[in-house]
Design brief:
Layout: H1 2-8, H2 11-28, H3 30-33, H4 65-101, H5 103-118, H6 121-131, H7 136-163, H8 166-173, H9 178-214, H10 226-235, H11 244-272, E1 302-311, E2 314-324, E3 329-333, H12 340-347, E4 355-363, E5 366-367, H13 373-382, E6 384-387, H14 391-394, H15 401-413, H16 417-430, H17 436-440, H18 449-461, E7 467-471, H19 479-496, E8 499-504, H20 507-513, E9 516-521, E10 524-530, H21 531-536, H22 541-548, E11 598-599, E12 607-608, H23 618-626
Parallel strand pairs: 3-8, 3-9, 6-7, 7-8
Antiparallel strand pairs: 1-2, 1-4, 4-5, 9-10, 10-12, 11-12
Helix pairs in contact: 1-11, 2-4, 2-11, 4-5, 4-7, 4-9, 5-7, 6-7, 7-9, 8-9, 9-10, 9-11, 10-11, 15-16, 16-18, 18-19, 22-23
Bound molecules: adenosine-5'-triphosphate (ATP).
Length: 627
């Protein structure tokens, strides 16, 4: 375990932990190793200093201090274990639910936590001890409940951060259940901070418990406890100052050791949190697919109709419609911030809190946007799979490839043991990994960018999906690997009939892989057509601008053309044409009102969102500019 190895590199932490283990073992073995009974009095030898007979001396009643420390440890450490277990169990469960489920549940748990934190704990404890006739167990359980908010808050914050990682949404998209994700992906990634805060809390609880025992709460004299022994020593401080030393020192050393252990764990966790290296990031095509607004296309593998997305009331994607058929690829292209990823995430039902999705996402005849949660969850991974642009982030760094792939196979196909392993190797072979067994045994950080992307494609294929949404799958890869991944997607499509939605900035990739292209600008589709029409007869000035800005199409030696200005943010979308501000063909009418997406010719599947579509000759406009 990497955390343990990192911890062992910290000598102070190791000494502190060893000390705690030693004390705990000695306390457990008290009946065997204590030289005297903790209650055996010898009034002739009261308040004796350390000697060969009594290594740590005796107390007021001549009882052996070492034996009482060992027996008293059972009360003190036992109580600590009891309170800490309660705080840990409540804190972790509540923190996980709040951090991972979020929304209303998070609110309820956070408010309850705040109420607990504001409760005067010592008053509650005094009441509990009073009502329960000094019941030590009830006192420690109450202390555990009162202390649980500190673990709840740490767990919630860590779970919230991890649940926003791409590998968690990938696991959701690949169809894994929530409970499974929590146990397999969230928890293993947040143990570090939880353990650290538990160790710190241990020190705090021991201090509080020592104080309670000091005033004889939670312990029934003459039974020993460390806090009670400090109290005994304090009472005879003037006569025998030594008596307070063993119990006071031991209590202080154990609290310090707990803090040092927590420090060591925090440092080890920080070093252990290695982010996998970021992987790195064009170009054949087939006949056309279908598109357009109106009714969902029943023959399409995925049909999106009138999809609009808002975050906290602000619309970022407006009225997007497209279809993709089996064995076909739809490219969604546009500059950064145009809404490509939000469109994909909406289709996958992967938008976070505060989002609102309107419109239809029809898969297998079912509108997923209005389907029960169970149907949507089942469709993710098995029906619609997802490949992200950064495969390293999409894979959980804590598990080997085989374990991650195996888990998905187990879920989708209910295979176990050797059949599951065989399917995992088959998938790795299918995505072109030359040595599947070797790759299966590796952790994500041991994979190159290209290998990681192949593994994430294998994960996506585990559910034998009908549709694959690939969000810039080659952006993070170097140019030779980009070509290989595109070839792989093409081959897989040929073998399995996958419908692919490919999100990209790269027109080279579009030309290479797509049948149909949707050009997005500022939240809207501004042009949609088959790939030949887009490149040969663009009908929207933005599409023309994108093609002209492609370095491959530019004339050697002349400056690379670009589209002046920037994409407006959703808060600043104009009333009229969204592209108007940057368009060299704009007229006053362009900003008069919303521009509809309309066929460029009667009933043509080639559609553009431009009022001047009939009068502009954008095909030759590009040639003019290049010549
Ligand atoms: N969770 C969110 N909350 C609020 N606004 C968001 C959120 N996610 C995205 N947006 C906004 O939605 C718009 C579209 O973002 P999106 O990520 O879909 O763009 P994109 O075209 O995919 O860009 P890129 O190519 O850089 O990924 C942007 O203005 C972005 O700021």
């Amino acid at each position: 375990m990497r955390l343990a190895r990192e911890y062992l590199r910290r000598p102070l932490g190791v000494i502190a932990a060893a000390f705690l283990v030693l004390v705990a073992l000695a306390v457990i073995a008290a009946p065997l190793i204590a030289p005297y009974d903790q209650l055996r009095m010898d009034l002739g030898h009261s308040l004796a200093l350390p000697s060969a007979k009594h290594w740590l001396g005796t107390d007021r009643l001549g009882r052996d201090v070492l034996s009482r420390l060992l027996w008293g440890g059972r009360v003190s450490l036992g109580g600590l274990a009891e309170a800490l277990s309660v705080a840990f169990a409540i804190g972790v469960v509540a923190g996980l639910i709040a951090g991972y489920v979020g929304r209303g549940v998070d609110n309820a748990i956070s408010r309850t936590t705040e109420v607990l934190m504001a409760t005067p704990g010592i008053v509650v404890l005094l009441m509990v001890y009073g009502i329960s006739n000094n019941n030590a167990h009830l006192g420690m359980i109450t202390l555990g409940v009162l202390c649980s908010p500190s673990i709840t808050r740490v767990t919630r914050a860590a779970a919230r951060a991890v649940s926003q990682e791409v590998y968690i949404s990938s696991a959701e998209v690949l169809g894994m259940g929530r409970l499974r994700i929590v146990f397999d992906h969230v928890l293993p990634n947040i143990w570090g901070p939880i353990i650290v805060s538990t160790a710190v809390l241990g020190a705090v609880i021991l201090g509080i418990q020592g104080g309670l025992n000091y005033i004889n709460l939670g312990v029934n004299p003459p039974a020993a406890s460390w806090g009670g022994m400090v109290s005994d020593g304090q009472r005879v401080l003037a006569q025998q100052p030594w008596l307070i030393v063993p119990s006071g020192l031991l209590l202080t050393l154990v609290i310090m050791a707990l803090m040092l252990t927590a420090d060591g764990l925090r440092d080890a966790t920080a070093s252990n949190r290695s982010r996998p290296a970021r992987a790195q990031a064009a170009a054949a095509r087939k006949p056309s697919a279908q598109a357009g607004a109106g009714q969902a296309d029943a023959s399409a593998a995925l049909s999106v109709r009138g999809l609009s997305v808002s975050f906290s009331g602000l619309e970022v994607v407006r009225n997007v419609s497209f279809d993709v058929r089996d064995g076909r690829t739809l490219g969604i292209v546009g500059e950064s911030g145009c809404g490509k990823s939000v469109t994909a995430s909406a289709a996958l039902d992967q938008l976070g809190p505060g989002s609102r999705i309107d419109g239809e996402v029809v898969f297998g005849g079912v509108d997923l946007n209005h389907a029960p949660r169970r149907v949507r969850a089942r469709t993710r991974g098995a029906g619609i799979a997802y490949v992200s642009q950064d495969p390293m982030v999409a894979l959980d760094p804590c598990f080997t490839v085989e374990s991650q792939l195996g888990e998905l196979i187990g879920r989708h196909e209910r295979l176990r043991g050797s059949r599951r392993r065989a399917r995992a190797l088959e998938l790795l072979r299918q995505v072109g990994l030359p040595n599947p067994a070797d790759t299966a045994a590796r952790y994500p950080h041991q994979l190159s960018g290209g290998m990681a992307q192949r593994v994430s494609i294998a994960c996506a294929l585990a559910g034998r999906p009908r549709v694959l949404i690939a969000d810039e799958p080659t952006t993070a890869l170097d140019v030779t690997i980009q070509g290989e991944i595109l070839d792989l997607l093409r081959t897989l499509q040929g073998e399995t009939g996958l419908a692919i939605v490919l999100i990209t900035h790269d027109l080279g990739v579009v030309a290479d892989l797509c049948d149909r292209v949707a050009v997005m600008y500022a939240g809207e589709i501004v042009e949609i057509a088959d790939v030949e029409s887009i490149f040969d007869r663009p009908a929207h000035p933005y599409t023309r601008g994108l093609i002209d800005s492609n370095p491959i199409a530019s004339k050697r030696g002349s400056p690379l053309p670009s589209i002046p200005g920037a994409v407006p943010s959703p808060a600043n979308w104009p009333i009229g044409c969204h592209f108007g501000e940057r368009c060299r063909f704009r007229t006053p009418q362009c900003s008069a009102g919303p521009v509809p997406l309309a066929p460029v010719a009667d009933a043509s599947p080639h559609q553009a969102r431009c009022i001047r579509v009939g009068e502009l000759d954008l095909a030759s406009a590009g040639q003019e500019r290049r010549s």
